[in-house]
Amino acid sequence: MSTNYSLLFYLKKPKNYVSGAKPIYMRITINGSVCEISTGKNCDPNRWHSKANRSKGNTEEVKTLNSYLEMLNLKVAAIHLEILKMGKTPTIELLKAKLTSKSENQKTLLSVLKDHKLKMESLLGNGFRENTLKGYRTTYSHLENYITKEYTIADIELRRIDHSFIVGYEYYLRSEKACSDISAAKNIKHLRKIINL
Questions:
Q1: Which of 69, 74, 37, 41 shows the shortest CA–CA distance to 53?
Q2: Residue 185 in contact with residue 191, Cβ under 8 Å?
Q3: Is residue 13 within 8 Å of 43, Cβ to Cβ?
Q4: Are strands 33-43 and 54-55 parallel, antiparallel or unpaired?
Q5: What is the 3 state secondary structure string of 25-92?
């Protein structure tokens, strides 16, 4: 691998930032050209180790976050190596295009959930009840709000859903939505079904 390639993770200060977690970005440099891409993850500045480009701590959430960042690091390195093996000159534009390219087979959480709701609506009284559909509508609303709040995006790819996402979602249900144990469990059950689909 050429020596003119580097990648680092850093916390980017959002506009009108006051306090709390900051989004984690990765800065890729090739031959002096630089691009910055959001990782879709956040971290509290007090927990960020800038020299290590990772979060500090031994909690399961920190381990999951750091594993995700390492996976991204390896993915970018693999793409860079792939470009070299193809006999092409690695450029920021080429690497970014390969990294951010969307596959038609990549499903997003809310799109799958929306499709499931539509199928349920068409089968009301024939395998599905109104109360069940109402529960999935509520789950859709909760997930939509959670994704927007925590990830500042409209939807999230299913492959990006990890332990950290689920733990954060359950905490969101209990804290911000004040869901009971039973209600939170039902929403998590709905999420599990959509992921399985």
A1: 69
A2: no
A3: no
A4: unpaired
A5: EEEEEECCEEEEEEEEEEECHHHEECCCCEECCCCHHHHHHHHHHHHHHHHHHHHHHHHHHCCCCCCH
CA dihedral 86, 88, 90, 94 (to 10 degrees): -90
Structure tokens at 84: 């070299």
Hunting for tokens 């009840």 — which residue is that? 129
pLDDT in tens, the chain (197 residues): 444 889 999 999 888 888 888 999 999 999 888 989 888 899 999 999 989 989 998 888 889 999 989 988 998 888 888 888 888 888 888 888 888 765 445 678 998 999 888 888 887 777 678 888 898 999 999 999 999 888 888 888 887 888 889 999 999 999 999 999 999 999 999 999 888 87
| Residue 94: both structure tokens together | 């080429």
Structure tokens at 87: 């006999």
